Structures are given as structure tokens and as C-alpha cells.
Amino acid sequence: MKEFDILIIGSGISSMAAARILNKFGHSKIGILEQHSVPGGFLHCFKRFGHRFETGAHYIGSINRGEPFHQLLNYLDVYHEEDYIDMDDAPDDHYFEDHEYTFSLGYEENIKKLGHLFPLEKESIREYFEMVEKAAHSFPTYYFKKDYDQQKMLEYIDKTVEEVVENLFKSPKLKEILYSNSILYGVAPKDASFGFHSIVQDSYIISSKGFRFGGERLARRFVQKIEEAGGEFFFNHKVQELVIENKEITKVICQNGEIFQAKKVISGIHPKLLFDMISKNDVRKSFQKRLDQIKESNSFFGACIVLKENPGLSPLKNYYFHSSSDFDDPEEKKKQKCFPFFLTSSQRDYKEGKFPVLITSNCAFSEFNALDKKSQDYKDLKEKYFKEVLEAIEKRIPGFIESIDRYTLSSPLTNQRYVPSPTGSSYGIYHDTSCTGARGLGPRTHFHNLILTGQNTLFPGLLGGSISAIKSAGQIIGTKDILKQLSEYEVME
Ligand SMILES: Cc1cc2nc3c(=O)[nH]c(=O)nc-3n(C[C@H](O)[C@H](O)[C@H](O)COP(=O)(O)OP(=O)(O)OC[C@H]3O[C@@H](n4cnc5c(N)ncnc54)[C@H](O)[C@@H]3O)c2cc1C
Fold first, then answer.
1. Phi, psi of 63 (to 5 degrees)
2. pLDDT (tens digit, 9 = 90+) per residue, 240-258?
3. Strands of 340-343's sheet, edge to edge?
4. End-to-end CA gap in the chain
5. Helix locations, 180-284, DSSP H
6. Distance (Å, rounded) from C-alpha 176 to C-alpha 44?
7. What pLDDT is recorded for position 349?
């Protein structure tokens, strides 16, 4: 049996950020259990046909000096300028059925561009972006403030994106543009919290960088710092059971038979999977009921493609292809037109010749889950999704299909294996207004020494996961003290 002061389950960005915050406050005897052979969760990369592909780290925002994500990573001693590459000044190209829009960096730039396209709604456009900025600044764990107006913050959390947009705008095309960023967190505008939407929108408006060497570089930076501080990683250690005595986790048992103990246990894995590892007699019924009622975000299908040559795409942009059914019930997806978006971080090292592209697209988990992974039907289903995706792309980028050299496809079952979640979902639980920010699951549990962290407890994204770590580590050392250090850190530099 191995003993630690603090045991962390999973090595996603939230788990490792929590470990680093705890290091900062003198906690060093930390053990991290990871089921995969590599660290990082969605930060990890993989190779296909000799090219590096990302899982879930394509680009990040608020990452210039003095901005929140930069400040946080810098404070955790894992920010290195050379790991990042500036995206294009207009990084996000959105294609709709009959129009398109490219989001640019800078509030004024977008106000100007959209005002030009929709002159009758100029004033509302300005009002909307001012609201986004104000809402984003109201969150103390985003712009790191010790003092804040809880009431204001809750107002922004409880309002939906749809309420705000429908109230301000008339043009269906403009609404479609303003809704399109929901793709970055996978919640329909009718369910998404305006406050949380504003954090995501603000972060990508103020700056935007890609990972020059993939998200795996950041994961390795974390591992190095945590190990230097005295922490220990255990890869290929899949946790399968938590033993409870007197409302405390007394043992954490891995699939390989190894047993761990700690005064505190932080879990960065999907909470539904975690609570399945605890005897049902020990889990509070009301909590289990809440968990059971929470929906999952969309499951996703992936395609790693190598093109014979670049068909004119910028490696410093992301491309999104929308259909009108983007965020409808994923299980209904099979009856509807599928939408793809593809991101190009794997081409950052592209010079010339073969051009790798990664596509991810919504799909129905139940369709894949009903099939044997080795069967022809399973292969055919992946091909069916791929065909729909390609047809949508070909309309915008003629010659795309012709230029495919090689490809490999993945399904939610593949994702379930590498970054487990109940349905191979892209952003974990479905973060509607009842499951986000202050209304989210949060870090506290009814077991004295069990703390939750990760995208499922607060909101998704690398930024969301990292911010959740502040709240989780805060259960041990005090959130206000962390925010104080953080807010003063950039000044001290
Ligand atoms: C296709 C896609 C694209 C994305 N693109 C972006 C992007 O461009 N920018 C951005 O900011 N965000 C993006 N995201 C979201 C972002 O990657 C995630 O929100 C974030 O990485 C989640 O971090 P986490 O720490 O909460 O969890 P995870 O990264 O899921 O980490 C959980 C860890 O726990 C481990 N684990 C699970 N079960 C066990 C077990 N039983 N025992 C031990 N270990 C276990 C897993 O292997 C994993 O390492 C994307 C996501 C997807 C799916």
C-alpha cells in the first residue's frame, strides 16, 4: 500500500493545475494516478501516418501577458513562450448554410465588422459585446479578484445566451453568427449560461494562441514541475474502486491491484464514473439522483486525414461548418444533417507537401455503442459519418475529397478508452445553466476527504478545467488565498 498526503485521480489539466497550486502552498507529497500511459488527458497528442494530432487542445485564449490564462500558467511555472504560436488575427472561420463570418481578435474589430454587415443593428452589436466583456469581468476566478459582486455574477450565470441574443437582435444571420461560438463548449444557446459563454468569448477575443508542439508539451511541463516539487506519477494505473469508511475514502484501488491511501483525494475524472466506483450504499441518494439527471454533452466522431497538399487552408485558423441542427439532442443526430468542424493545430509545423487535418463532428453514441467494434457494421457506420462530413466540407472547399491521401476514423468508443466518459462525450457533462459555474457540481462532496475537480465541476475547456483547479485546491488551502497570490503574481514578476 502506498501513502500520500494528497492523491489525485487522473492527470488532465485540472488535476495537474490543482497539484501545482497545492505545491505553491507547500504540499509536496502528492501522488497522481493516471489510467493512460501518457499524462494530460485531453492535452495528449497521438501520431498517425507520421503526423502529430491533437485530442482536445487546439487553441487557447486570454493567453497574452497580463491576461488570465497566461497569468495562471505563469503562476504555476508551466508557461513557456516558445510552446505557443500566435493564431491568425482572424482565427475562426464559421461557415453557415448560406453565409459565413470570421471572428477576429479584438472587441472593436468585431463590433466594426458586424456593424458593417448588419448596419441596422449596429447599436445592439456594441451593447452585446459590452455585456460580454462586463460579464466576463464579473467572475473572480477568471480575472482573479478577491472581491466581487456575487449577485451580479449569478445574474449572468442564470441568463441564457438565447435570452440575451433574442432580446437584442432581429437578423437571423446575425443571431447565427453570435450563437456559433457555442460550438466551443457544446451547449445549445437556449441552455447555455450567458456568463460562462462570455468567459469563453472574451478569452478568444482578447488573444488566441495554438500549441506549437501540441498540448502534450504543456502536459510534460506540468509533470516536470510536480515531480520536482516531490510529486509522483503512476501511469497505467486505472482506478476502479474507492473504499469508504465513516464517510471517508480510506482506500483507492487500481485495476492492477495496487492500493493507495491519502488524507485527501482529489478526483479529476468524470464524476459519474467516479461515483460508480463507490458502493451505492455509501453514495447519498439525493446526490446520485442529481448525477443521474445530468445529461452528457455531444459524443463525437473523429477523422485524422492526411491530404496530398494544402488545399489553401491556413494552419493558424480553425474552420467550423455549421448546420441548423448543431446542438439538438445528440441521440437524434442520426436523423439529422451532421455538422463538422475541423481544427488545424496539427499542421503548425507544416512546411510543404502532405497536410494533416483533424476533423471532429457530433454523432450519436447509441448508434456506435450498439455495435461490436470489430464488426463491419461498426466500420460502415464510421464511413457513413465521414461521408456526411466530407460532403459538407467539399461544398466550401472544392477538391478536398480528391486531395485525401490517407485517413483513419475514430468513434465515441475510441474516445471512451483514451479519456473515459460515459458516452465518449466531447465536453463531459452538458453544461446548461443548472450545471455551470456557481451552479455547477463544484468541488465539495459528501465524503469528508473527497474533492472533485475538472471540466465537469465548473465548465469545459482547458481554461475551464484550470479554473476548476483553483476551487478544488481552495478546499484544502482556501480559494481567497489562492486568488490573492494569483492577483499579485503578475505584479511581482
Ligand atoms: C475534440 C475536442 C476539442 C477540444 N478543443 C479544445 C480547445 O481547442 N481548447 C480548449 O481550451 N479546450 C478544448 N477542448 C476541451 C478540453 O480539452 C477539456 O475541457 C479539458 O482538457 C478537460 O480537462 P480535465 O482535466 O477536466 O479532464 P481530462 O482531460 O478529461 O482528464 C481526465 C484524466 O483522467 C484520466 N482518467 C479517467 N478515468 C480514470 C481512472 N479510472 N483512473 C485513472 N485515471 C483516469 C483520463 O485518462 C484523463 O487523463 C476540446 C475537447 C474536445 C473533445
1. -120, 10
2. 999 999 999 999 999 999 9
3. 100-103, 92-95, 318-321, 340-343, 355-363, 299-307, 404-410
4. 42
5. 194-206, 215-228, 271-276
6. 32
7. 62
Name the residue of 9, 38, 42, 411 whose CB sits within 8 Å of the most ligand 1 atoms, as the mutation to test its pocket: 42
What does the pLDDT read at residue 89?
A: 96
Name 71's Cβ contacts closer than 8 Å, sequence gap at least 6.
144, 486, 489, 490
With the C-alpha atoms ordered 196, 436, 161, 186, is the resulting torsion angle positive or negative? positive
Residue 5, all three cell numbers: 498526503
- For the chain, what is the largest distance between any 2 Cα atoms, rounded to a whole number of angstroms? 69
Candidate from 105-109, 260-264, 280-284, 414-418 with smallest mean pLDDT:
414-418
Please, what is the Cα angle at 36 between 73 and 239, to 5 degrees? 100
- Give the span between the Cα atoms of 65 and 419, in whole angstroms: 31
DSSP 8-state code for residue 447? S
> What spacing in Å lies between the alpha carbon of 170 and ligand 1's midpoint?
37
As a whole number of angstroms, the distance between CA 414 and CA 420 comes to 9
Domains of the chain (ranges; CATH) run 2-73+211-294+431-492 (3.50.50.60), 105-208 (1.10.405), 299-418 (no CATH)
The per-residue DSSP string of 10-65 comes to --BHHHHHHHHHHHHTT---EEEE-SSSSSBGGG-EEEETTEEEESS-SEEES-ST
| Residue 152 to residue 157: CA distance in whole angstroms | 9
User: What is the CA(380)–ligand 1 centre distance, in A?
Assistant: 28
